[in-house]
Amino acid sequence: MTKKKQQDLFTEQLNILTVADYIALINSNLEVLSDIKVEGEVSEFRVSQGKWVTFKLKSEDGEAIIDCFTVIFKLDQPVEDGMKIRVQGRPRIYPKYGKFSISVEDIELAGAGSLKRAFELTKKKLEAEGLFAPERKRQIPEYPKTIGLITSSGAAAYTDFVKVLENRFGGIKIYFYNARVQGKGAIGDVVEAFDWFDLNHKKENIELVVLTRGGGAMEDLQAFNSEEIARSVFSSNIPVVCGVGHERDETLVDFVADLRASTPSNAAELIIRDKREVLSEINGLAQNVEYLIKHEIEEKQAFLGHFSTRTSQFINEKTYEMKQVLITFSHRVKSLSGFLAQKSQQVDYLINNNIRAIENKLGNSIQIIAQQSSLLKSYSPKEVLKRGYSIVTNKNGKIIKNINDVVKDEEIETTLSDGKLISIIKNIQNS
Amino acid sequence: MSEEFNFKKALDELKKINEEFDSEEIDLDEALKKFKRGLELAKKCKERLKEVENEVVKIKEKFGEKSS
Q1: Per the count of CB atoms within 10 A, which of A71, A93, A115, A195 is most buried?
Q2: What is the ipTM metric for this complex?
Q3: Is there a contact between A78 and A91 (Cβ–Cβ < 8 Å)?
Q4: Contact A178/B at CB under 8 A
């Protein structure tokens, strides 16, 4: 064998690989593509056993397609069919089936449509769990002395918040946690910040925490639409004020926060009143109290003055009334004695009248009695006897009125006006 | 400014005194005491409002640093 032939054979043997080695060779050569992001539309999105995620990424025209594989915890945004996403991961051939796929490390939502859809999906999920419930919103303490602040030190939000706050009220201690508010590190930083406040708020007497950043495109505000930050806000041990974006920006943390501010400056305005306003209120209160007490004293003085006038007036009135009563009384007494004298005269007159009447009546009666008496006299039996009549009685003195009262030979007594005749009945004859 | 001074409590007490003066028939002796207390509270609150600066305590300087 020539030297050349030997060399050719060696080269040939080197180019022959087993299937497994070949796939391994390809896979190792594909490693360099791991940093590339591939953009496409999701289809056939599936989650199995609550853990394994598979989907296809296809080109807009549907002409090109790649299988993708990942695990659920690597998804920080909801993904569903039809969404436009960018995946970044290791491209590889799975040896057992000889299938090409991307083992996805990170997914980004691409385009406003996908972001909006993901926002709606997360919102719906968190709302159903009760993270936005108004009844769980806590009261923001008034006039806080110590507060927490989560934002990026380089952002306008930081400067705006601190400036507006200082302009409104002084003497506040701000615990500032510098956190990225945009891009990949934002979620982790903000979650970590909340963990720090949960751990340290008691020790440092921190009464509330402000999470803020300026406005931006929906993509820039994405961390504030993430489930992780929303849950951190929800589970914070101290009340949370969120001021993310501009007036019209709406993020999920706004719904979860205990108080929502429209901008970083507005967050400062909502947590404390302007000291000028408070000062004017304090002055008003102090002046009002002073006015009221002065008024009270004046009123009492006036009352006392009025009272003494009223008292002497009262005494004078009563004295006069008493005098009047006495005068009236003495008049009454006088007129009463006159009246009594008059009445006594009347009584005397009446008595005299009565006596006269009685005397007259008595006179008449005496006359009548005299007449009656002489009349009676004329009726006396003795007077009758004088006129020739007589009374016959038996021995027992019983007056004999008819012949049957006597018997023959009975002794009878005849009374005459001047004496009695004793006789014996000799004969009895009917008349 | 003493550590115990609580701005909100002081302001609330001042408001309460004001309400009592406004609504109740008050005993003058009691009122004078409350009036004195009210002025004291107003003075303390005003002193607190004179503070102009806020203090910023930075928890960490750079991103990714381990926070204390």
Answers
A1: A115
A2: 0.82
A3: no
A4: yes
